[in-house]
Design goal:
Elements: H1 3-26, H2 32-56, H3 65-91, H4 100-118
Helix pairs in contact: 1-2, 1-3, 2-3, 3-4
């Protein structure tokens, strides 16, 4: 079983659902600014699901630590980044926005790990 392929599928499906929810259910109940925040979360959510999918489809990548760590970082970073934005929009608790930069930093680190892995 390719765990990361399953993770990519789960993130992809939930990213589409989040985008649809934002476009159809939230537009009449949140401000335009908050809707833009939701859309940013959904965009990063889907983008990184696709990245994980690409990496997971490479033969042997999941068991190779140099590829596994970027995939794990993309997964965790997406969860922290996108889901903190979703939670912020749904609850209007501003403190949740402090989590978002941690997710973003993890995404940046994962991209750098991907570059490093490509040269090993």
């Amino acid at each position: 079983m390719n765990l990361m392929l399953g993770v990519a599928g789960l993130l992809g499906a939930s990213g589409v659902a989040a985008g649809a929810f934002g476009a159809h259910a939230l537009e009449s109940i949140v401000t335009v600014e908050r809707l833009a925040v939701w859309e940013t979360g959904a965009q990063y959510h889907l983008m990184h699901a696709a990245v994980i999918l690409c990496l997971a489809l490479q033969n042997g990548r999941e068991t190779d630590a140099r590829w596994f760590w970027p995939m794990l970082g993309f997964t965790t970073g997406t969860l922290l980044f996108s889901f903190s934005l979703y939670a912020l929009v749904l609850t209007n608790v501003a403190a949740l926005a402090t989590i978002t930069p941690l997710g973003g930093l993890l995404l940046i680190i994962s991209w750098l790990l991907l570059i490093k892995a490509a040269y090993n």
